[in-house]
């Protein structure tokens, strides 16, 4: 079986989404990439999570061609592989329809950085893409979803550029969130945290509509204690 370890890691990342309550039925998917071989392992489309096994993960190349597997890959494959092509540092991608993060996406609103929980993982607001055009929807919609994410991070939609490794998540307007990380595990971990900070942000706005974002000093302090070159959080090289 090709890429056995990666298949197992991708399966575990998919199951983590279920354990954390981020998916309903077969909604959502996780993938991972072997950069040396240029191959992606991704959840098959529409298969119940409790039936998934490592051998069910579909292996494709970075153009979406199936290399190994008897099942159809996730319908979001084109978004995943485009993100792998455009964000070369990432090793895993996750897509969910988690309730609170999706609510912000449907409202077309970014998730503000209201506090230190957010700052521990995302160095600033979690951005939202521009709404898709009718042409994008009628064309290669899933591919266009990836293009919209990349365009937002490059600052091509009228807002500033964003470092995809400093803010490893994006809300797709009218749709739902995507997250990523250096591994499939990290991508799933970020999806769980994204949902938590989206829930907190929603409640913050409910309590105080004009709540201000965390100060730059506090954002820096919390983000860089985990992610900076002199990070102090955690043990040795296992900083979390």
Could you explain the architecture of this structure?
With about 240 residues, this protein is an alpha+beta fold. Helices cover about 40% and strands about 10% of the residues. It has a seven-stranded antiparallel sheet with strand order 4-3-2-1-5-7-6, sandwiched between helices. It starts with a helix and ends in a 13-residue tail after the last helix.
Mean pLDDT: 94
Given helix and strand content, the structural type is: alpha+beta
Number of helices: 8
| Helix-strand sequence | HEEEEHEHHHHEEHH
- What portion of residues is helical? 25-40%
Give the N-terminus to C-terminus distance in angstroms. Answer: 32 Å
Shape: globular
Strand order of the largest sheet: 4-3-2-1-5-7-6
Main beta sheet: strand number and arrangement?
A: 7 strands, antiparallel
Question: Taking Cα atoms only, what radius of gyration do you get, to the nearest Å?
Answer: 17 Å
Could you tell me the number of beta strands? 7
Strand content: 5-15%
Low-confidence stretches: none
Keywords:
240 residues, alpha+beta, seven-stranded antiparallel beta sheet, 8 helices, 39% helix, globular
């Amino acid at each position: 079986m090709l890429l056995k370890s990666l298949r197992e890691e991708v399966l575990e990342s998919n199951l983590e989404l279920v354990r954390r309550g981020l998916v309903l039925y077969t909604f959502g998917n996780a993938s991972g990439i072997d950069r040396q071989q240029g191959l992606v392992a991704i959840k098959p489309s529409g298969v119940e999570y409790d039936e998934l096994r490592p051998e069910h993960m579909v292996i494709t190349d970075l153009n979406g061609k199936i290399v190994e597997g008897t099942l159809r890959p996730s319908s979001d494959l084109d978004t995943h592989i485009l993100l792998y092509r455009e964000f070369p540092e990432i090793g895993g991608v996750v897509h969910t329809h988690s309730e609170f993060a999706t609510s912000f996406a449907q409202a077309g609103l970014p998730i503000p950085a209201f506090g230190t929980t957010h700052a521990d993982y995302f160095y600033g607001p979690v951005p939202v893409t521009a709404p898709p055009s009718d042409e994008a929807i009628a064309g290669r919609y899933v591919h266009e979803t990836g293009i919209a994410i990349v365009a937002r991070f490059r600052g091509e939609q009228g807002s500033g550029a964003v470092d995809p490794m400093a803010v490893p998540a994006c809300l797709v307007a009218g749709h739902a969130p995507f997250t990523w990380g250096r591994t499939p595990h990290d991508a799933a971990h970020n999806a769980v945290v994204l949902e938590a900070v989206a829930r907190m942000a929603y409640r913050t706005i409910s309590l105080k509509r004009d709540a201000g974002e965390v100060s730059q000093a506090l954002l820096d302090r919390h983000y860089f204690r985990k992610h900076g070159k002199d990070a102090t959080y955690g043990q040795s090289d296992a900083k979390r």
